[in-house]
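During the second half of the funding period, the structural biology subgroup turned its attention to how the target accommodates small molecules. The most pressing case was coproporphyrinogen III, which had performed well in the primary screen but for which no bound structure existed. We therefore specified the complex as follows and requested a full 3D prediction, including the ligand pose.
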Amino acid sequence: MTKTLLRALAGEAVWPPPVWLMRQAGRYLPEYREVRARAGDFIALSTDPALAAEVTLQPIRRYRFDAAILFSDILMLPWALGHGLRFAEGEGPVLPRLRDQAGVEALDRGRVTEAISPILETVRLVRAALDERTALIGFAGGPFTVACYMIEGGGSKDFAATRQMAYQDPELFGRLMQVLTEATIDYLLAQIAAGAEAVMLFDSWAGVLSPSLFRTHVTAPARRIVGALRLRYPSVPIIGFPRLAGVMLGDYAVLSGADGVGMDTAMDPARAQWLVPKRTALQGNLDPMALLAGGQAMRDEANAVLLAMRGRPFVFNLGHGIVPQTPPDHVAALVEQIRAA
Ligand code: CP3
C-alpha cells in the first residue's frame, strides 16, 4: 500500500503526514471559476461527469495533494431522494422545508440509483485519472446535518427547528434519520463500488446537539454506517467528521468505529490525543482563516498542529473548508511546509 492517506488511515504514523484540504476544489481557484461559469449552476456542474472530474483534479494538478475528494455536495443525497434543491447565488442552498410525515414518505430511495449515476461516473473518471500516490475520497453528509438542511430549508444560525423537532416529535425525526442513514449507506457503497478508496462523513452541525442527542443522532448513525460499509468493504477506511463535537469526539471515535476522525478548528490537537485512541487516525485542523492570512501566522499555526500530531496516525487538513477569498499561493506554501515537516 503506497498511498500515504490509506497508510495513515490504517494506523501508521506516516511522516511527513499526507495532506489534503476540505473544499480543495472550489471558488478560490480561477480554473474552478472558469469551469463553474461554463457549467451554469452548481447542480449542473455536479452532475456533468467530465466537468466534475475536471474540477476534482484541478487542485491535484496544482498542489499534488495526497488525496482527491469527489466534487459533489452533501445535499446531492436529498436531491437524489427527490427532495428539491437549488443553490441560490450568494445565499447558499435552498430546499423545501420538511416538517411532517408526508415529507418523509415522499423521499424515494427507489430513484437514488438513477439520480446518482452521473456522480458515480465522476468517481470512475477521477479514479482512472489518478496516479499511484493519490487516493480518491468519496463522501456523504452525516444524516443529522443533512436532516438539518432539509428541515430548515437551507442553512441556519442555530438549526432551532431541527432541534425542536428532535425533542418534540422524536418519532418523525427518528423516521427521517432512519431513511437518511439507510440512503447514505447505499450512496457510500455505490461510491466505493465505483472506485472511492476511502469515504468521509461530514456531520458539520453535530456540535449543536446536547450530549444525549449527539449520541442518538450523530454517533449511533455513524456506527450503523461504518458497520454496514465494513461488512461489504472491510479494507475501505472511513473518516468521521462530527464538527464542533468538543469532548464528544472521543466517544464518537470509539463508538462509531471510524478509522479516522476529523478535528474542527476549535479542537486542541493535544487534547484530541487524550480523547481519541491512537489506533484511530486524526485529521485536521489548521484554521482556514490562518490559511487565508498566510505568512508567519499560518506557518506557526500549522507547526503547532504538526508538533502535536507527530508520532501518531495523522492526516493534515484544515479545521473546516477553504474560504473562497484564499490566495492560491498560500495553499502552495502550506503544502510545501507540510512536505518539509
Ligand atoms: O471538499 C471538496 O472540495 C469536495 C466538494 C464538497 C463541496 N461541498 C462542494 C461545494 C464537499 C465535501 C462539500 C460538503 C458540504 N456541503 C458540507 C459539509 C462540510 C462543511 O462545509 O461544513 C456542507 C454543510 C455543504 C452544504 C453546502 N454546499 C453549502 C452550505 C453551500 C453554500 C456555501 C458555499 O460555500 O457556497 C454549498 C455549495 C458548495 N459545495 C460549493 C462547493 C465548491 C460552492 C458552490 C459554488 O461554486 O457556488
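Two results from this model are relevant to the next phase. The pocket of coproporphyrinogen III is lined by residues 22-27, 36, 42, 69, 71-75, 87, 92-93, 139, 155, 202, 204, 321 (CB under 6 Å). The CA atoms of residues 303 and 341 lie 8 Å apart.
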